[in-house]
Amino acid sequence: MHTYRRFHAFWLSLAAAFLLAVGSAYAAPYSPEYEARIGKETIEQVKKQYTVYEDPVQLQRLQTMVDTLKAVSQRPDVNYQIFLLDTEEENAFSIPGGYICFTKQLLANIESDDQLAGILAHEMGHNCTYDALTEADKAQKLSLPVLAAVIAAIVTGKSSDAISSTLAAGLYVVHSVLSTYSVKIETRADRNGVDYLIKSGKYDPTGLLTFMEHLAVQERTRPPLNLGIFKTHPFSTARVAAIYKQISAADLDINRRAVTKWDPPVLVPGKSGDHDVQTLSLWEYPLLSFNYALPGTDVSARGAAMVQALTEALAAGAQMGDFSVESRNHLPSIKALGRLIVTIYPEDAQLNQTTPDDLAARTMAGVKAALYAETLTRLYGPRPAPPAPPVETPPPVETPPPAETPPPAETPPPAETPPPAETPPPAETPPPVETPPPVETPPPVETPPLAETPPLAETPPPVETPPPVETPPPAETPPPAETPPPAETPPPAETPPPAETPPPPH
User: Fold this and answer.
1) Do 313 and 282 contact (CB within 8 A), yes or no?
2) Half-sphere exposure of 18 (CA within 13 A, CB side)
3) Higher-pLDDT residue of 128, 425
């Protein structure tokens, strides 16, 4: 027993010596005058890079937090000065001598005083441990203006003309200043900041945790380049894990909804068949459709009670494991953190065409789906919005027709040319008159003895050919008159045989 006590006392004394050594490490290693001189020169460098603006409300808000937190820090005597920088960068940083700068964009993205106090506590942690001055000591040969520029680059993450000229001169020690600042110091500033928040008893350290989760989402959606020794911040996921572990070790509840903005459940009116219904919805996930209320109450009052009970449970930090289905008066009910959220009635089941137990299970599934989506959003950011339907291109505006030019006076159509008279088909040529077969010449008559030769018979005159029929004028051209066949020419009269010449006289 005595051995155990001596052993225990030894470790207590060793721990006390260690704490004294750690405390002495931050016991003014730099004179206040030196720190003030460096700080003043550095803030002037910052003012060259940013525009400082005034916002009395924000400045008073931050000053109140500073007064609360510095009282529990290692350096409660520091006179902090707040500067607001007009830039779209999301950043905050501290400068030796008690200067702390916040950008306008950072202040716009802050969701609660707890988040803002967490960032402020982190920056005060840098100042309390002389981080910027300690790192700048690695470049002791630099002149004061350049040293101030180095510190400005360290705390803002941006270079300046002085830093550029320093690098050009070959003083590569600045590389290590800029790279080791985060690796060894940022996590320590987180740890100190959480400690200040817990000791203050006023601000929830979960605010710093949620802000670091916000930065981690940005890293996941926009992965940083592998900058090697130029890397100016550790990955936020590692810092998130360390902060979470520190808060849990302090036996504190981690309720992210208490320090961030979130949407409560809502009632959505709608239709189920021919029935008007209300649907309890959480983050666009439908949980329960109903149109029934107990006698003496109405549907709206029942819905409002559901919304209030679920909102209170979520605000208290209810997670998936905190919701359960229980039997209440032989009716399935959903509870969370001791609160009755929903009771399922037979009328609800009938409306949804199922049993009360099955409807309770479906409602629980909707709650878990919504909470799971919340976790995914915290880890990976909001779901991308579905693509918008293509915008219908409106039809082109019809250009009104030009004023109608009166039509020109109608030119009367040309008189219709009558179709040419149909030429009658040519008259059919009558078949040629058949030439009668030649008259058979009778055998010659025996020549009688010569008589006196009578005078030759006169040849009759030829038959006159009648004149042609006169053609009528061309109105309708009548078919040509049929040409009569030529009159038959009578055969020539037979010439009698010559009279036989009597024999000459003897």
Assistant:
1) no
2) 6
3) 128
